[in-house]
Amino acid sequence: MQYREFGHSGIKLSRIGLGCFSMSGAYGAADDDESIATIHQAMERGVNLLDSSARYGGGHNHRLIGEAIKGRRDQIFIHSKTGTIRDSNDRSVAEGSGRPDRLRQICEMSLKNLGVDYLDAMCQSRVDPSIPIEESVGAVARLVEEGKVRFIGLSEAAPDTVRRASKVHPIVSLQYEYSLWTRDVEEGHRDACDELGMALMAYAPLGYGFLAGVIDKAGSQSEDDIRGKFPRFYEENFDANRQRVARLESVAADRGTTAAQIAIAWVLAQDDSVFPIPGCKSRKHLDENLDAVDIELTSEDIVRLDEIFPKDAAAGTRYPPGGMQRVNL
Ligand SMILES: NC(=O)c1ccc[n+]([C@@H]2O[C@H](COP(=O)([O-])OP(=O)(O)OC[C@H]3O[C@@H](n4cnc5c(N)ncnc54)[C@H](OP(=O)(O)O)[C@@H]3O)[C@@H](O)[C@H]2O)c1
After folding, report:
1. Nearest C-alpha to atom 44 of ligand 1 is from which residue?
2. Among 216, 211, 210, 233, residue whose Cα is nearest residue 305
3. Which of 5, 14, 61 shows the shortest CA–CA distance to 264?
4. Mutate which of 50, 53, 62, 206 for ligand 1 pocket (most atoms within 8 A of beta carbon)
5. Any ligand 1 atom below 6 A from CB of 328
6. How far is residue 252's CA from residue 304's CA, in Å, rounded to a whole number?
7. How many angstroms separate the alpha carbon of residue 91 from the centre of ligand 1?
8. Is 266 near ligand 1, meaning CB less than 6 Å away?
9. Which of 150, 159, 90, 146 is nearest to 123 (CA)?
10. Based on C-alpha coordinates, what's the Rg of the chain?
11. Along the chain (329 residues), what's the average pLDDT of each consecutive run of 10 residues?
């Protein structure tokens, strides 16, 4: 594994982190024993960055991680998101999710479910349009003073919001979707991170699995797989996206790797301050993904990939309309 300083934290983290979302059933059924074995294997292979959220599986994800890291707390950096409030249809709602009292409550719940005394990073999942970011970050800064949180992160925040937040308390990282088919962060977010000495955590570097080439039919997701709600997986967009992935697969074949590995290597090649956090729930996928750290893309590879995935190449938005309203605020 390779390590780089995580933003201005002074802490070196593994270049590839482990996203734990799918371990709590986001993309269909998961097996706790295999998930725990996957976290253990990640740690044995040098991964020291785990990403989770208080909301994943309604607390299941935190409990699972707590179980996996028992007795090894000091070996792991837990990047813990707050999640947002859910409406009566279980849809995520940003309004009210950044309230100071809620943030404190979420922190306490996270510590309890994880069975730990502090969160390495507490990250507001979405900017709350009804609460000034200064108030939300100020509330988390108080948790830092109390020793419950070490660093503060933001997710899907707009560059100017990150700048405003940083005036209240240093922000260690911005988590944002970043992959071959989602390059929005190149529109100012990366500049803001560089300016403020922050890490950029690239989430969904595999395009929720699509870029790994494992999804070959529109509508193949089970009822409990949230990807069925993502426009890029809709029937009308599927073939156009699949054709690009087929071309990615030929780049991978030429390099003797898998498409997933090229997708991760591409994110790694962007900058040392970018930390991809591919998600998986099996040791098989984990091993494949971690091996990407040793893949050096050539300039010809990068040019080929840019041709396959120019900016905004993907058919369909990354989230449905409601979700798109809650990003980049
Ligand atoms: N801030 C946010 O709003 C936000 C949103 C989404 C996600 N995240 C975080 O980012 C992490 C990564 O994103 P993600 O998990 O949603 O998407 P992702 O990393 O792009 O893709 C995960 C999907 O790819 C599959 N996969 C992983 N490795 C594979 C391989 N080598 N070959 C074939 N398929 C493979 C996984 O299957 P298996 O699970 O079966 O292994 C899973 O279905 C999450 O776990 C979560 O921690 C943050």
Report:
1. 19
2. 211
3. 14
4. 206
5. no
6. 11
7. 20
8. no
9. 150
10. 19
11. 98 98 93 98 98 96 98 97 89 90 97 98 97 98 98 98 98 98 97 98 97 88 88 96 97 98 98 98 98 97 97 95 95
Q: β-strands 12-14, 3-5: how paired?
A: antiparallel
CB of 77 shorter than 6 A to ligand 1: no
Structure confidence at residue 188 (pLDDT): 97
Pairing outcome for strands 199-203 and 119-124: unpaired
Position 182, amino acid: T
The pLDDT value given to residue 181: 97
Nearest residue (CA) to ligand 1, atom 24: 209
State if residue 288 touches ligand 1 by the CB under 6 angstroms criterion: yes
pLDDT at 218: 86
Of 27, 56, 176, 208, catalytic? 56
Whether 278 and 264 have beta carbons less than 8 Å apart is answered as yes
Tally of CA atoms within 13 A in the half-sphere of 35 that contains its CB: 22
This model's pTM is above 0.90: yes
Which pLDDT belongs to residue 320?
95
Phi, psi of 80 (to 5 degrees): -115, 120
Active site residue 56: yes
Ligand 1 in contact with 181 (CB < 6 A)?
A: no
CATH class of 3-208+270-297: alpha beta
121, 100 Cβ separation under 8 angstroms: no
Give the residue among 228, 289, 281, 232 at the shortest CA–CA distance from 258.
289
SS3 246: helix
**DSSP reduced 3-state for 202:** strand
